[in-house]
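Most newcomers find our protein records easier to grasp once they have seen one. A learned vocabulary of local backbone shapes supplies the integers on the structure line. An example says more than a description, so a record of this kind follows:
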Amino acid sequence: MEPRTDSSPQSSPRVVKSEAEWRESLTPEEYAVLRQAGTERAFTGEYTDTKTQGVYECRACGAELFRSDTKFESHCGWPSFYDPADTDAVILRQDRSLGMVRTEVLCATCHSHLGHVFEGEGYGTPTDQRYCINSISLRLVPAE
């Protein structure tokens, strides 16, 4: 089953904060990516090469997003996953910024920006998808 596509502006997040509250709870770097759809520089993120087993949560709200067993080496400069932890964990929406058409990945719980998803790149993953996610959007909770 595919993650849901956010085609209606009526779908609202389950975690809602004012912009001032988001600014208070996130560092300036986290805010720029999570709330303003920024992108961290390639190969600089804390989880790019991490092989630790565990669960990746949204850094803004703590919702479970991805699991380490779906993380793979894409050599693109950002952590890559072939599937979200749950089909309702993320929302996909069209992104027409920077003169391109891409698919943005948002946390379904708080609607924070996570990264983008790409298909058909030949990585040989079970879904043929690459969820290219900013490390700063995530928090790894290691398995016990």
Remarks:
- The first helix runs from residue 19 to 25.
